[in-house]
Write a structure and sequence with these properties.
Blueprint (H helix, E strand, L loop, with lengths): L7 E3 H7 L7 H5 L2 E3 L3 H9 L2 H4 L9 H13 L4 E4 L5 H10 L6 E4 L17 H8 L1
Parallel strand pairs: 1-2, 3-4
Length: 133
């Protein structure tokens, strides 16, 4: 938020996360809580998830994943960040490639890299230099 870029926290994500642990107050202070609304529900209903289902993906939380993807699309988010590379990330990429969403999915396992947020993927010079060494 200090950089002027809002970090949305979906109420659906909150419901999944809080099953195992509370969200710390310092995280909540950095986020804009994003409720699941009418437009989000309509977008979720219109996403062709069966056609975009990546091969081999079986997921109990599929309905929640689709709602989160729809919510990010309606909010016009530029990025979603996920630790779920097995299904959520793959769904996001499949929907983006099909033109159903515009945001880019970022995998937490890849670590932070400013190049994720550059339209051309260009890394900062010192980061690129260190990787090539």
């Amino acid at each position: 938020m200090e950089s002027g870029v809002p970090i949305f926290l979906s109420t659906i994500v909150v419901s999944e996360f809080c099953v195992r642990q509370e969200i710390p107050p310092e995280i909540l202070r950095c986020c804009v809580v994003l409720p699941f609304n009418w437009g989000d529900a309509l977008k979720a209903a219109r996403l062709d998830w069966q056609r975009q289902r990546p091969e081999g993906v079986v997921r109990d939380a599929l309905k929640d994943d689709i709602k989160i993807i729809a919510q990010a699309a309606v909010a016009d988010a530029e990025f979603v960040i996920t630790a779920d590379t097995a299904s959520f990330y793959r769904y996001c990429e499949a929907f983006r490639e099909a033109g159903e969403v515009r945001f880019k999915a970022i995998k937490l396992e890849d670590g932070f890299d400013r190049s994720f947020f550059n339209s051309d993927g260009q890394q900062e010079f010192p980061e690129a230099w260190e990787q090539d060494r």
